[in-house]
Structure prediction request, 291 residues.
Amino acid sequence: MVALLDTSSSPQMTISDDAFSKLRDFVYEKSGIYIAENRKYLLENRLINRLKALGLKNYGEYYEFLRYDSGSYSEIKALYSVITTNETSFYRNPPQLKVLENGLLTALLDMQKRRGQRSLHIWSAGCSTGEEPYTLAMILLETLGPRLGGWKVIISAGDLSETVLESARQGEYASYALRTTPDHIKEKYFDELDGGRYRVKDVVKRLVTFAPMNLKDKARLRSIRQSQLIFCRNVLIYFDQPMKKQVISTFYDCLCPGGYLFIGHSESLHNISRAFTPQYHPGAIVYKKEE
Ligand SMILES: C[S@@+](CC[C@H](N)C(=O)[O-])C[C@H]1O[C@@H](n2cnc3c(N)ncnc32)[C@H](O)[C@@H]1O
Prediction:
């Protein structure tokens, strides 16, 4: 016997062309994330649980809710959490990190000393669940060790999704997140928990501050303190050309002269900005804001 499914209370699974363009434009307007025409299925899959949670019948109703409902503020946060792709890991892309370890960090500290400033500000923009900023903190501790004493070091880490930030603040990870982490780092900066999980030690956590941040929000970003180093890896790929240009120009303004920008190894500033000087290292390009 075939059981008939009661579909009366389930939302309609297929997104109409009209609802797709409205939702896609809404996501872009709010976050700068660009969803191509051929990725309709992505919105469908990622939003279906939001429709269910809100008891809505179709994607058109969801759009109306986001746009006009008085409760939309918290729903927009939920939207950010489901539409973002948060893939990351500790010690991701080692050739870029080697550049930091092999002189760039020390050079930045020397530059600050010459300016009579004993402070270093690093910004991890699009930090996801925290692996990137924590890696930067570990590299600082390893490379500079006791030289860090007497310095005010702040790593500001921000992301659009508050769900990933919550998890970042917890600082607990499955072993897969540490798959490219050198053994001696694992031993020194993590506590091993039951079930093969790892917790970042306080000495590392202390250097990192997490806060929600939207790279689309130019006005808010202007209030971010000047940085000597900005990491924004594997984030630009979600933006279209105008948004990439806007974000990169904001980074330029937020970097102090002599500072560096790191983007993902598969990303490029070609046709986006000529303001930076690219520096070529084995397996990595870093972008300098000239003094
Ligand atoms: C693929 S992860 C990259 C994480 C890390 N930077 C790395 O390379 O391992 C991309 C992150 O960018 C964030 N993101 C996307 N759009 C953003 C925006 N408009 N403002 C801030 N963060 C954003 C996502 O939430 C996601 O966590």
